[in-house]
Amino acid sequence: MTGPVLSMTGVRKVFGTTVVLDDLSLSVSEHEVVVLIGASGSGKSTLLRCVNLLETVDDGVIRLDGEDITDPRVNVDRVRRRIGIVFQSFNLFPHLSVLDNVTLAPRLVHSRARASAEEHARAMLDRVGLADKASSYPDRLSGGQQQRVAIVRALMNEPRLLLLDEITSALDPELVGEVLALVGELRGQGVTMVIATHEMSFARQVADRVCFLDGGRILESGPPAELLDAPRDPRTRQFLRRIA
Ligand code: ADP
Ligand code: MG
What distance in angstroms lies between residue 231's CA and the mean position of ligand 2's atoms? Predict the structure, then answer.
């Protein structure tokens, strides 16, 4: 009935003379989890940054719930309020407590009352097992805990779409599991996500659809069992062999 949450059509992004996204099209339905895989430099981060309007596209259209967000007249803040993004580096404010990190944007940007924002934040932290860390500062948390706080922060506005860019790449191996488990829970709650990752076992578990990026194009896409176990394109095969 309803259209896609995200639709990218013919998106092109150029840095200098490098074509980073090349006539790229991608559509993501509500509750769908799309995982982007591909070699370093294939354009995964740029794709996510274009969706969050951290980059402007050189051609093509990106729609969020049908609205053309690449229209130069679009209100960037209003669009970003509907999209959550989490990066590899946790980007928590070191001088703010966990609770203040999580409630800063709702209070400042969305002028939400402190009490209401904090009540919501405490409930969210409780859900991810971090209720007892609300008044801690980021440097007292493990990397996995910091990244879970960053995810809670991205969810505070109840975004239509959550973008995750290599969120476990900076973590010690023993901390990866707790972050991926949280993403799995979000999937269970129906959060629509686009995820760039190097973790193929995670891609297999969480993805409805895996897209293989190569030179700024989606070379091949499909359900994880198809794309990861029976890739059709020789370049997809080569990539999967290399990282196996
Ligand atoms: P991935 O996330 O898949 O590793 P990126 O989207 O980060 O790929 O990068 C794709 C290409 O774009 C790379 O060749 C990278 O060097 C280039 N690139 C990314 N950001 C910039 C930038 N701000 N200026 C110039 N080149 C960039
Ligand atoms: Mg990247």
Answer: 22
